[in-house]
């Protein structure tokens, strides 16, 4: 029988030494890691921690206002709030309740909000870009039961007039950037500079007291004051809109210019752009047709041919022409607007009755090169110089390339193309004694200190002599007489000078001339001109003569403008003008 096993215990000192060595090894690893975290890598982890705590927020700058010449706000900036949600903070069971509450307050589809709340991987979803502060306040008062919903300070753009000067003013996008019109042209000035703020926040997004914050103050945008007068703009817009509808026309434009300064008093288009609902309008209708749409001017262009003839000394107002109702030019036979026997018309009569044939006869005494030079001097083939978005130069072919028939048709406004503003500028030049002033739309802006800085005066250019301008004015006044084509533009008590225009209209849809452009442009008082008014209507379907379609618009707008600006009649009588020889 074996004796019982005896348990032999090892050396206790050895076991203790092994344990101490093991503990020392483990502690050294911990110490090394601690040195790494708090020493070597401390800055890295401090930066990561700060990145998690510090939240940056853009502080939007207040956009400057656009006003009329008298300070009435046409475009302004109002306080607003952005509403957003953090889907990660909204429990799935609460999504329907939160979506229902927000939909009721914001008047938005519940499904749209629910879809944003369902994006659980996101920490930020915008629900509404710009709501009234009172609405945001109501929502935030329910914050305890609407966990994950937040509000940010924002601004929104407002246009009190709705569609008043819509295409001229333009609009801004959701990010506050000007997308069209003056909002786009002067965006950098109006926008100002956004600021930025950095604050330290806790896990729930609350600011940590006594922590650092960094603030970059936003710089407010500067204001733009226009030369436009609100009431006259309204009258011009109503008159052109009503006539476009009444005649079944495609579009129309009406412009009012100050004769002495070239400043735009009104610039209206029809149909006009509703700035409160611009998203519902096709982009091709965002443009300011007064400066973007080009067309053949027709008989309103005869004033330039008349100026060239008088300036060259080739004719005088009393020069008599034997005028048939047609004339051959190269391979074409060109006609007056109606058949008539051969008439003995003075040159004044040629302009007053708007004879195409008579105008061609006068232009033949001037010559192609001189007529082309006069067209250039009046601004054809060059942008008017307002700087408006999309401003066009029109088309003025080189006189050396004129075809046989074009040498005749350009004399009465077919074969060249212009904008409405270019045409109005021609008559401003005549009304201003032969001096063209670059059209101006901005009266001035505010500096960063708030002081008003007026725009430089428009450039003045002598185009024709004062005598020529005076003689052409007399012809244009005769054109508004009972014997002229523009008698519907006459205004009781005032002397009015002006010209009708009826031109064939090229339409790409039919790949040819299949419509008309009806125009009337003139100034008053004729002997002491203060204002130029132009009305142009594209593709009317109930009549087409400029004297019937556009002249009534001129009369309405000019009558309103004269009264609005308190311009009295001169009390003088127009000199007698011979229309036909022997009278």
From TrEMBL:
InterPro entries: Beta-lactam/transpept, Beta-lactam/transpept-like, PBP_dimer, PBP_dimer_sf, PCN-bd_Tpept. GO terms for biological process: cell wall organization. One of its GO terms (cellular component) is plasma membrane. Pfam families: PBP_dimer, Transpeptidase. One of its GO terms (molecular function) is penicillin binding. Residues 59-208 form the Penicillin-binding protein dimerisation domain. Residues 252-558 form the Penicillin-binding protein transpeptidase domain. Keywords: Membrane, Transferase, Transmembrane, Transmembrane helix. It is found in: Membrane. The chain crosses the membrane at residues 16-35. Belongs to the transpeptidase family. This is Peptidoglycan glycosyltransferase. It comes from Streptosporangium minutum.
